[in-house]
Each structure stands twice: as structure tokens, then as C-alpha cells.
Design a protein that fits this description.
With 427 residues, the protein is mainly α. The protein has a domain of 190 residues: Preprotein translocase SecY subunit (Orthogonal Bundle). Helix content is 72%, strand content 5%. The strands form two sheets. A three-stranded antiparallel β-sheet has the order 4-1-5. Helix 8 runs antiparallel to helix 9, helix 10 crosses helix 19 and helix 12 packs parallel to helix 19. The longest helix has 35 residues.
């Protein structure tokens, strides 16, 4: 990885993209330090230090911006939720599906435009829910009376979310990697010093628990190794191309393979599952009577109900994205047009059915892998108060996102470097 970064830095175009991405990340971190007016950030920080439920997980994904009530407190969650809604609606509503398939670049732009407007609407709703929480817990400035303080707070949160959406799109277009994933990566990594400090303080307060933290670190390293192995794993289906003679030349006849990644959807199922699981917590904020009821107990990341819901959501989005990204019928038709076939299967429908069967199996494995890695720390936290207070419940999701985004970004960096070293292919 370090060698790839060093070699990429020597190429002018890639260096400019890296500098642009780092500049955007710097702006994001500076924005996280700017707090909205009329909020007592000291009381708010104390509230989140005592919170170990779903709000703590949302705070982790925002890079501690939520507990500081910064302008980027909502992070990119509104955009992720809007993207989920639009992709589900595209399948459910024929008009949107036709717009995506037949509209070409113009149809894609229209869907992106609707997603942006939806992001602003969701950000306004979540911003108001956050204001209701702050007001209910008595964390507003006593001088903040009247209608203008809530308007300023909600508008600031909404604007910050829209700016983050724009920054993510700029990183995708002019930087390296997916901008939204990069911002989420930075948000989680920014929490690492805080988590390490919390672990050190935990050992200081109770030295007899040091072995628990050692096991946690070893478990995190094992998860990282597993993520790297599975992300690089693929199922290779052998493909044979028939020979054909054109004039005096013979074409085809070579053997190759059709690569199918085991974890085809990457980290998206985890990100989307976490976003969907956090929606009920936002709704509960509007009903103060529910805050102390069994509903919040169910929404606790260490509760059995939350684990089951989280597991099922990850599996669902894994199948959803594998279906969207990989079309067996289209692959089979392309092989048939180019004279390719899978040994033992006739071209056309038998080939597509075989590819679909393989896709279903590897998607199941990938979904199980993501779900198990994500909920294992939650299970550990369920049986250990020390692990719960140390924030390990958020560890599985965070590690999956950080490692997967880092690997994907490095792959894109390597692909761009390969495109610029074309001279050897022409000689």
C-alpha cells in the first residue's frame, strides 16, 4: 500500500487528485470543529459520553460531530438514506426504472437531482429531530428563546449535510475513490484516538481487565485479515472461445475465465443497513414518551432484536446490490455474441441459469461474512459490560467500512496508475 502511494505521488495527474482529496478532507474536519449557535456543547458532550445506544453509533459514523453539534453533525446519513430510497423506488416504480434504463445520461442526471432534493428534505427532518432532542434534554442556551434559534439550528444542520453531499461528489469526480465512502472513512478514523484513549483509561481505572482489551485488539486484527482475504477472493468460471477463421487468420480458441467477486457489493450493505437501522431512533425522538419505553431498548445496538434486524438488513442489501450490479442474462448474451461458452453448458439460457446459481451461492457467502463480522462485536458487548463501555459494539461496522474503503481506494489508485503506463502494451 505504501509503495502504491509513493509511486502514485510521482505522477502529476494523480498527485493533483490526491491533493484535491486531502484538501476536501481538511475542509470536512475543519467544519466538524465549527459548532452551531445556541447549543450548550459541554452538556451535549457529557450526554453522549453516557450514551451507549444507537445515538452513540450515529455519533461514531459522524466522527464525533454529533456530540459537538457541529455544522456537519448529520454527516452523510441523509444522502445515504436518500440513495437507498431512490434505488428501492427505481425498482418499485416502472417510470423511474424506465428513466434509469432508457433515459441514458439524461435519465441518470434526473435521478441524481431527485436524490439531492430528497437529501435536503431528509436532512431537514433529521435536523429537527436533533433539535427536539437537544431542547428536551435542556442543552439549549437559556438565552435562546423565540422562533429564530430552532430555525437557525435546523437550517445549519440541513445546509451542512447538503455541503457534505457536494463535497462527496467533488471527490468522486476530481479525486480518488468514492467521495461518500471517503468521508465516512475519515469520520470513523477520526474516532480512533478517542477510542484508544478510552481503552487506556479503562485499563487505568480497572487494571484487572487488561486482558479483555488485548483480546479485543487481537480480534480486530483477525477481522482485518479476514476482510482483506474475502475482499480479494473471487469465483472464476472457466470460459472457452470457439475458433473461427476470417480470411487467412484464425481467431478465438483461447481459454479464459469470468471473475465473480465473493463480496460483490463491497461495504455498501453494511453502510445501508446501519443507516436504515438508525431511522427508528430518529422517529422516537419526536415522541418523548417513547424515550424511556421498550422501544429504545430494542434500538440499543447490543439488544438481540437490533442484532437480528441488522443481520437481516445486511443480507437483504447484499442480495439487492448483487442483483443490480450483475445481470446473468446479459453476461450470457455477451458470451454468445463473442463466441464464448462455459464448458458443459449450452449458450443462452442454460449458461445464464448456471451463472445465476453461482451468483446466488457466492452472494450468500458474502452476505454471511459481512453480517457475522458486523454483529460479532455486538454479541461480545451483549455478554460483557467492559466491552460495551469501551465501544466495541461499534467496532465491527467501523472496521468493515474502514478496511473495505481503504482497499477499494487503493485499487482505484492502482487502476489509474496502470492506465498511465500504457507504453509497454504498444511496443
Amino acid at each position: 500500500m505504501l509503495t502504491t502511494l509513493r509511486n502514485a505521488w510521482r505522477i502529476d495527474d494523480i498527485r493533483k487528485k490526491l491533493l484535491f482529496m486531502m484538501f476536501m478532507v481538511l475542509l470536512y474536519r475543519l467544519g466538524n470543529a465549527v459548532t452551531v449557535p445556541h447549543v450548550d456543547t459541554v452538556m451535549l458532550g457529557e450526554f453522549f459520553r453516557q450514551e451507549v445506544g444507537i445515538l452513540s453509533l450515529i455519533n461514531t459514523m459522524s466522527g464525533s460531530a454529533l456530540e459537538r453539534a457541529s455544522i456537519f453533525a448529520l454527516s452523510i446519513q441523509p444522502y445515504i438514506n436518500a440513495s437507498i430510497i431512490m434505488q428501492l423506488l427505481t425498482i418499485a416504480i416502472p417510470a423511474l426504472e424506465r428513466m434509469r434504463k432508457e433515459g441514458g445520461e439524461e435519465g441518470k442526471k434526473k435521478i441524481e437531482k431527485i436524490t439531492r432534493y430528497s437529501t435536503v428534505g431528509i436532512a431537514a427532518l433529521q435536523g429537527y429531530a436533533y433539535y427536539v432532542l437537544i431542547n428536551r434534554e435542556g442543552m439549549l442556551d437559556p438565552m435562546a428563546t423565540g422562533i429564530w434559534p430552532p430555525i437557525v439550528i435546523v437550517a445549519t444542520f440541513m445546509t451542512g449535510s447538503a455541503i457534505l453531499m457536494w463535497m462527496g461528489e467533488q471527490i468522486t469526480e476530481f479525486g480518488i475513490g468514492n467521495g461518500i465512502s471517503v468521508i465516512l472513512f475519515v469520520s470513523i478514523v477520526a474516532r480512533f484516538p478517542v477510542e484508544i484513549w478510552s481503552m487506556a483509561m479503562g485499563i487505568t481505572v480497572n487494571p484487572s481487565t487488561w486482558w479483555i482489551y488485548v483480546l479485543m485488539l487481537l480480534g480486530a486484527l483477525a477481522i482485518i485479515v479476514l476482510i482483506v482475504i474475502v475482499n480479494n477472493a473471487e469465483r472464476r468460471i472457466p470460459v472457452q472461445y470457439s475458433k473461427r477463421v476470417v480470411g487467412r487468420k484464425m481467431y478465438g480458441g483461447q481459454s479464459t475465465h469470468l471473475p465473480m467477486k465473493v463480496n460483490m457489493s463491497g461495504v455498501l450493505p453494511v453502510i445501508f443497513a446501519q443507516s436504515i437501522a438508525s431511522i427508528p431512533a430518529t422517529i422516537v425522538v419526536f415522541v418523548p414518551a417513547w424515550s424511556e419505553s421498550w422501544i429504545m431498548g430494542v434500538l440499543d445496538p447490543t439488544s438481540v432484536a437490533y442484532m437480528v434486524l441488522y443481520f437481516l438488513l445486511i443480507v437483504f442489501f447484499s442480495y439487492f446490490y448483487s442483483t443490480v450490479q450483475f445481470n446473468p442474462i446479459e453476461i450470457a448474451n455477451n458470451l454468445k455474441k463473442n463466441g464464448g461458452f462455459i464448458p458443459g453448458f449450452r449458450a443462452g439460457k442454460p449458461t445464464s441459469e448456471f451463472i445465476q446459481k453461482v451468483l446466488t451461492k457466492i452472494t450468500l457467502f458474502g452476505a454471511m461474512y459481512l453480517a457475522i463480522v458486523a454483529i460479532t462485536p455486538l454479541i461480545v458487548s451483549y455478554f460483557s459490560d467492559t466491552a460495551r463501555m469501551s465501544g466495541i459494539a461499534m467496532g465491527g461496522t467501523s472496521v468493515i467500512i474502514v478496511v473495505s474503503v481503504a482497499l477499494e481506494t487503493i485499487k482505484q489508485l492502482e487502476s489509474q496508475m496502470l492506465m498511465r503506463h500504457y507504453k509497454g502494451f504498444l511496443e
